């Protein structure tokens, strides 16, 4: 497969390169950048010396349509909404890592992102790429909306319980922590070393753009009513997300029923590792496409607490995007993704 990458100079883009240079069926034919066109990838990222040295060029949708079988878009929100209408033509498959095609309507997107995205007719063509839950639809689409990093860990934690009607969907609270790569490579005051190091803080409380994505997907995939309080935190590490999700169990639900719901949902799913009763660390999935999930039933409060860890740039972005590409091209979903986590 001939692959193009738009936004190759960002953290998600360079992670796509790391995964795709070793993918047995993929051949990166072009990498695109707005601000760094003309430079080679190794100038921008010296760790790619002798590994991937192609030059970056200005975005050219006509060229992409002609020479690529698939294009990954890893740009900030508000960009792919403009690009996709110029790309959806012929055989080309589009995988958007940004949030532009995840929400159901342009109005909902505008409300939470404060920007414009593509028209409704394009949003209607997008399939939400939560690989473990939507594989059939993913296989048949030409426009894939790759999930957000926080929603990936949260949805994998809660969908089995909501589907089996074990929890009250309106009682959900998600407390989430992310490493700083989640905010992208561009310098900003909020991600400056001195601001982040030896500190932890919440941000975008009650207004984070992943809240409607989580609610919408829980509702679409289970038909249940949901209301989610979602609070993200920034922690001083490079990669990793830990989500702690709380929900009230329905009357009489047992630990065995909770365990059975998880086992059934993730039987045969290679990238979800169930670890009941454990305390998973972000370090234990670092650099890999795994999502590790643990749960604890609190009989005293009647709540279940689900812990999930992912690497935000792998399962939370580039890794899941490649997993979805595999599904879209009829390949085994693990192709090119069987990395052991880097530990310690
Ligand atoms: N980082 C993460 O953990 C995750 C990120 N995402 C999403 O993936 C997308 C990319 O994120 P991330 O890699 O962190 O971001 P970065 O800020 O690290 O990179 C952004 C990329 O977009 C390009 N870009 C910026 N502005 C424009 C523009 N106006 N037109 C075209 N290209 C542009 C930049 O290229 P250049 O400056 O060279 O032109 C750069 O390659 C975002 O939408 C993000 O929300 C999703 C899940 C997880
Ligand atoms: C640590 C950090 O800042 N993380 C980002 C996650 C970005 C992301 O994935 O947002 P999209 O919906 O635009 O893809 C954030 O909270 O906004």
How many structural domains? 2
Bound molecules: NADPH dihydro-nicotinamide-adenine-dinucleotide phosphate, N-acetyl-L-glutamyl 5-phosphate
Question: Looking at the structure, what is the overall shape?
Answer: globular
Biggest β-sheet strands, sense, barrel: 7 strands, parallel
Could you explain how this protein is built, in words?
The active site is at 149. Catalyzes the NADPH-dependent reduction of N-acetyl-5-glutamyl phosphate to yield N-acetyl-L-glutamate 5-semialdehyde. With 344 residues, this protein is of the alpha/beta class. The protein folds into two domains: 2-125, 3-Layer(aba) Sandwich (Rossmann fold); 150-311, 2-Layer Sandwich (Dihydrodipicolinate Reductase, domain 2). Helix content is 32%, strand content 20%. The chain is built from twelve helices and 14 strands. The strands form two sheets. The chain has a seven-stranded parallel β-sheet, sandwiched between helices. β2, α2 (41-44) and β3 (56-57) form a beta-alpha-beta unit. The longest helix has 15 residues, at 149-163. The protein is globular and about 60 Å long. The model has no long low-confidence stretch (mean pLDDT 98). NADPH dihydro-nicotinamide-adenine-dinucleotide phosphate is lined by residues 7-13, 33-36, 74-77, 79, 97-99, 148-149, 181-182, 184-186, 312-313, 316-317. The site of N-acetyl-L-glutamyl 5-phosphate has 12 residues, from β10.
